[in-house]
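Q: What would this chain look like folded?
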Amino acid sequence: MGSDPQYAKYPSLSLAQDIFTLTNPSSADSSRQTSLKKIQDAVSEHKMAPLYRYLAHPTDGILNTSGEGSTRKSSTPGSRKIPGASSALKRRPSVDVDFPWDEELYKRLRIDNEKELESFQKEEEEATEQAGDTEVQAAKGKRAEFWARVGDKDKAIAAYEAVLEKTGVLGTKIDIVLAIIRMGMFFGDRLLVKREVDRAKTLVDTGGDWDRRNRLKAYQGLHYLTIRSYNLAAPLLLDSLSTFTSYELCSYSSLVVYSVLAGSVSLKRVDFKSKVVDAPEIRAILGDGEEKLSALSGAAASGPAAGDEEMQDASSATPAAASTVVNLTALGSGQAAAQEAEVAIDFTPLAGLVRSLYVGNYQAFFLALAAVEDNFLSQDRYLYEHRGWYVREMRLRGYQQLLQSYRVVGLQSMASDFGISVDFLDRDLAKFIAADRIPCTIDRVNGIIETNRPDDKNKQYADVVKQGDSLITKLQKYGQAVRLRGSERG
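A: My prediction, written as structure tokens:
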């Protein structure tokens, strides 16, 4: 195990979620008021003058619709973004947010910030004169954490880069890059996050310790989630469940939500059963009383050895005996403070989604999917932008799972199974069929759906012909280029 993580306290990503909640049209009024109170308390407690101006200034603030004198500047492609807000959110009707601007409060915060900066400067000068490089780096690190704490993105990143440039310890370098990633996540800068994730991966590959490798896995998974790469996010997030320690990134409950959602939409049925339905870390959260007990005692199967009993309830399946690892870092006393800070979450819709999809109860699946959209997809800053896509993909998954078992299915029968009208099913399936997502045809005259099972051999033959034709074309072009050059030499 390497040294303890550094620079992990700031910025607070839970505060970015509060800012998102404040601007989210889907949030309840009580949630907005609670988030507003948390933001105001954080600004006062941590002396966050830059963030306060960024949010609440009468002319420049991105949240303040009130204020004396001037109106807020209109949003443009070059304007600053709300932390965690997406382009989809900006296209929705604006939400009136009364975040009052207090000029006296801002001046007091600025004065406090200047005093802190002076103390850092003095400490750095004393370290330069009387101490060694380690003390100088520590003083510079305090300055970087200060800018991250008060919410000044550009100055925080510049300060972190200055510390990183003079740091020789690999573990500290990784910690600094992870801090920059969180700054990017706070302000919704995906390009910055992508660049720094690649940078952190390079550092970890050169000899990072186990703890930082594990922490980076959670960072990568969450990044892939924000860019809609759920197939890449799922294995990383699911692997992080048993050894999660990145509480500066998100709570363990949120990690479970992200893992289940990513796994449900992207994993094949066998992997979905072993890594989501039967995973002990997930059953300990989503299962009923008996399932939680079996998960904690190691009775639930988790891994490739777990069988895939078709259309059988996961709770009634008889899993193979396997040694399982429950997230002791989350369930033990070592992270008690982090867990106490977690907000209680009702996982019932998510548990219903997983269970109904696996056992093939499609009417309950659609109802659970609607509840998941309302309670999770529409309320989380990382999921909000992709909620429409996610719901469509999950509907597609339900349709595919039912149709793959039949050669012909009645339209009315399938509509009844999903609890929807025939017209809706016809329109919804037609979009997927046109996009070649479902191999079937709809016969409205006879009221049936015929599946067209792809022939693997014919597909392979067609691929070989297509690739061969492409190769011949390239060879012909190469031959022409060679002949031309030969004639030029002659």
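The longest helix spans residues 456-489.
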